[in-house]
Specification:
binds magnesium ion; TIM Barrel; single chain; binds 3-hydroxy-3-methylglutaryl-coenzyme A
Length: 300
C-alpha cells in the first residue's frame, strides 16, 4: 500500500537554477516580476538568486539588486553562496536564508567552484557554524548525489557521508540533487530511505533535473521514501552551466498537477503559475515543454 504525505512543500528554484543557464541576460526588472508572480501563485519558499562570481555566471550578476527588492520577510527566500566572499555579500543584505552547495564528485566540484570537495567543506564548515550563531537558516545543496557528468556513478555511501558532514556542521536542510537527471527511481528510493532513517530531524529535500524525463517517477519514489519537500522550477527551466547534461529542473506545474491529482496539497495555484511563466517566457532562449504548460496553452 502506498503511504504518502497529505501535504508537500515545493521549493521554487526557477529564479536561480532556472535562469542561471540562460544564454541571454534576462533584464533584472523581468526577474523581479517573475519572482513576484511565482510568489502570488503560492510559491513561498524560493531560491531567488546566487552570490557567485559574475564572471563565472553573468546571469546572476544582479543578485544583490534582486535580494534588495524581492525578499519576502514572511517566507524562506534563499540566496546561494559558495564561499566566504559570497557569505560577506549575504551579510550586506537582508537575506536570512542561505544555500551553500558542494558536489559529492570532486571533478564536478572543481569545475563548479574551482575547489576540491574537501577544500569546499573545510571552507564551509566554520561558515555554517557562524551562520547558525547569527541565526540564519542554512540549506546545503548536495550536487551529483547519484551521478556525475565526469566521474559517472557516485557511491551511495559517499553521498551519505557528505550529508553527514553537513548535518554535523549544523545545517537545517539537505537538498539532495540528481544534477544530470540520471537517477533511477529505485536509486532515489534507496538513498532517500537511508537518509530519512539516519537524519530523522533534518529537513530533507529532493532536487531532480528532468534530463531523461524520469523526474516525476523519481518524485513518486522519493515520496514513498518519506520525502515531502521538492525543489522544482517553473516551466522546467534550469541546469548547471558546469554540468554538461544538466537540462531543466522538473517543472513546478507538472509536479503540482501530479501531486494535487493524488490528493496531496501543495498550496500552488496553477493558473497564477501559468501567468508567472508568461512573464519570463519571451526572454528565454528555449521553449517551455512541460506537459501541463503545453496543454494549458493549447486550451486557452
Ligand atoms: P575563483 O576564480 O576560484 O575565485 O572562482 P577566486 O576566489 O579566485 O576569485 C576570483 C574572482 O571572483 C575575484 O574577482 C573574486 O572577488 C570574485 P576579481 O578580483 O577577479 O574581480 N568572487 C566572487 N564574486 C562574487 N561573489 C562571490 C565570489 N567569489 C569570488 N561569491 C567561484 C570561485 C566559486 C567564485 C566561482 O567558481 C563561481 O562563481 N562559481 C559559480 C558556480 C555556480 O554558480 N554554479 C551553479 C550553482 S550550483 C548548481 O546549480 C547545482 C544545484 O542546482 C544542485 C544540483 O542540481 O546539482 C545547487
Ligand atoms: Mg540544480
Amino acid at each position: 500500500m502506498l503511504i504518502l504525505p497529505n501535504k508537500v512543500t515545493i521549493i521554487e528554484v526557477g529564479p536561480r537554477d532556472g535562469l542561471q543557464n540562460e544564454k541571454n541576460f534576462v533584464p533584472t526588472e523581468i526577474k523581479k516580476q517573475f519572482i513576484r508572480g511565482l510568489r502570488s501563485a503560492g510559491l513561498t519558499e524560493m531560491e531567488l538568486t546566487s552570490f557567485v562570481s559574475p564572471k563565472w555566471v553573468p546571469q546572476m550578476g544582479d543578485g544583490a539588486e534582486i535580494i534588495a527588492d524581492c525578499l519576502d520577510p514572511n517566507t524562506r527566500n534563499f540566496v546561494l553562496a559558495p564561499n566566504r566572499k559570497g557569505i560577506e555579500r549575504v551579510y550586506m543584505s537582508e537575506c536570512k536564508a542561505v544555500a551553500v552547495f558542494v558536489g559529492v564528485s570532486n571533478s564536478f566540484n572543481l569545475k563548479n567552484v574551482n575547489k576540491t570537495t574537501r577544500d569546499s567543506m573545510e571552507e564551509l564548515r566554520p561558515i555554517i557554524s557562524e551562520l547558525k550563531q547569527k541565526d540564519y537558516f542554512v540549506r546545503a545543496c548536495i550536487s551529483t548525489a547519484f551521478y556525475c557528468p565526469y566521474e559517472g556513478k557516485i557511491a551511495e555511501k559517499d553521498t551519505i557521508q557528505l550529508c553527514r558532514e553537513f548535518v554535523e556542521a549544523g545545517v537545517d536542510e539537505l537538498s539532495v540533487a540528481d544534477t544530470i537527471g540520471m537517477a533511477a527511481p529505485s536509486e532515489s528510493y534507496s538513498l532517500f530511505t537511508k537518509l530519512r532513517v539516519e537524519f530523522p530531524e533534518i529537513l530533507l529535500t529532493a532536487h531532480f533535473h528532468d534530463t531523461r524525463k524520469l523526474a516525476l517517477a523519481n518524485i513518486l519514489a522519493s515520496l514513498q521514501a518519506g520525502i515531502d519537500r521538492f525543489d522544482t522550477s517553473a516551466g522546467g527551466l534550469g541546469g548547471c552551466p558546469f554540468a554538461p547534461g544538466a537540462s531543466g529542473n522538473v517543472a513546478t506545474e507538472d509536479v503540482v498537477f501530479m501531486l494535487e491529482r493524488m490528493g496531496i496539497t501543495t498550496g500552488v495555484d496553477l493558473n497564477k503559475l501559468m501567468n508567472a511563466i508568461e512573464i519570463i517566457r519571451p526572454q528565454l532562449s528555449r521553449t517551455i515543454d512541460s506537459g501541463y504548460y503545453r496543454l494549458h496553452t493549447q486550451t486557452v
